Amino acid sequence: MSTTRRRRPALIALAVLSAAGCLGLAWWQWARYESASGSFQNLGYALQWPMFAGFCIYAYYKFVRYEEAPPPTSRAGELTEIPAGLLPERPAPAARPDDDPAMRDYNAYLADLANADKDRKDT
Questions:
Q1: What pTM was computed for the model?
Q2: Where would you find the membrane-spanning parts of this chain (predicted)?
Q3: Domain spans, the chain
């Protein structure tokens, strides 16, 4: 018997308690909506909490199904490829003119700073 099957009662209790908690919160929000200070936001929450309770039960159901028949795994050494045309193409970088005097001067300035820093570290 697998360890997850031995923990099945605890998982069932967790799913039931979480669903009950969600339904309790739905009831609380409904009571808030019906009170004098209630708003439509409380009504929205009152309708939303039962969906969360349903998700708790659905998540447990999917867990049990994956436990019995896990999804197929890929082989460790097998390479996978992304089909062509699935992802958008990367845009090409904009062409920069090499004869830009401001860029040439700035790069020379950076090279001088790097040499000065290197000379200072050597001493």
A1: 0.54
A2: 42-61
A3: 3-68
